[in-house]
Amino acid sequence: MRFAGVKELKHYTMDLLKESKKRDIIITSYGKPTAILHHITEDDLADYLVENDPAFRARIEEAYAEYQIQGGVSAEALIKKLEKRRGRKKI
Fold first, then answer.
1. d(Cα 16, Cα 10) in Å, to the nearest integer?
2. Which residues of 21-55 are buried (b: 16+ CB within 10 A; e: fewer)?
3. Cα–Cα distance for residue pair 44/29, rounded to 1 Å
4. Beta-sheet pairing, 32-37 with 25-29
5. For residue 19, how far is the Cα from the chain centroid?
6. What is the DSSP string of 19-37?
7. How far is CA 17 from the centre of its chain?
């Protein structure tokens, strides 16, 4: 991990982005940390958006609440039910 000022970020953006593939870079403004450059892949981006998008999270929570109100089944119960079915089939 290393530190870089806003001025360095402005002048050497591509160099810092390349370096962020190896290690995180903390960007400072007037000596205080303001951001972190952290390398991310396309696969990581999808996970990041799901984990950090408040609107998406709210939609998931609403859907789950509606599912429970309508008599949804817990994941554990569903797994047990599927395992029972699998046990019945004999090939």
1. 10
2. eeeebebbeeeeeeeebeeeeeeeeeeeeeeeeee
3. 27
4. antiparallel
5. 22
6. HTTTS-EEEEETTEEEEEE
7. 20
